[in-house]
Amino acid sequence: MSVEILKQIEQAEHKAADRYAQAQREARDIIKAVEEACLADERNAQLEHRALSQRVQEDARATAKKQIVELEKAEVLEAEKVTKAAQQRLPEAARLIFERVVTDGSR
Fold this sequence. Notes:
This protein is mainly α. It has one helix at residues 2-104.
């Protein structure tokens, strides 16, 4: 009977060793799967970050272009305003130049 008990103990030890090895394999597989999932999540986050960064840059460029167009329009309007003011003063300037030439012409 004691031989039979020893065989049962030996079988139980082998089962325990097999279960332990299986648990280690499963743990390694779980860790590997988690690491792969983390890497995939990290790659996805990087892609999302790049896309967001590009959208922000494109929005900034569009805003800057819009401001440039508005500034150019304002400059054109200001130039037209200055030109118009100068044209309105042109007859007076011509008269003053004419008077000075006529007055100082005999010197």
